[in-house]
Amino acid sequence: RCAQQGTIRTEDYSHFGITNRFFAAAMGIPFMPVKVMIGSDLCEIQNFDKDRKVMEFDDPFSGERCGIVPRLAPDFAVIHVARADAEGNCQLYGITSSIEIIARAAKHVIVTAEEIVDTEEIRRTNQFTILPSFFVDYVVHCPFGAYPGGVFTYYDYDLEHLDLITRSGKSPDTMEAYFDEWVYGTKNEAAFFDKVGIRRLMDLRADPY
Predict the structure, then answer these.
(1) Running DSSP on this structure, what letter comes out for residue 143?
(2) Positive or negative CA dihedral for 154, 156, 162, 164?
(3) Order of strands across the sheet that contains 65-70
(4) CA-to-CA distance for 98 and 100, rounded, in angstroms?
């Protein structure tokens, strides 16, 4: 709604296009070649990335028309993982999307984790490690940190609460009412989860196997 009203400035990329900007920064190179977005309004409509969003060129090897996107290195990345040790070695099960690429691209990384485990446990199951400690600046123990989303092998997403957020977003008044009740109206994180209810949280628990 803010984008529609012009109160904030936005820039649209395809998922693969923006991921490649992070990927370039993660690899320490200035840009990445892409074919996505070329010929679409995603290239033509430019806001604050004007003249830098996508540059088109002819591939010197094949002559094919391609594009390049510049690296994007955010000041901070905040990612949520299944578990981490105190040093910042992080593990996540299942699909990770592009969070490890974003973390490697960022100048500073804050990790929130469902649980904190010993480094020996991380080493024992290193096939699940998506980010080593030298990329991480801070580690925060944050159970149910993805709620109302889910974390694979820990808990399912809360479809009922997500539906509440979606319905609340239909108008400014209903969205403000949601904030008043669930965000501003709860003193802290513990009060928020007290309002959700322990029975509801336990019903969302996943089978770890």
Answers:
(1) T
(2) negative
(3) 31-34, 65-70, 55-58
(4) 6
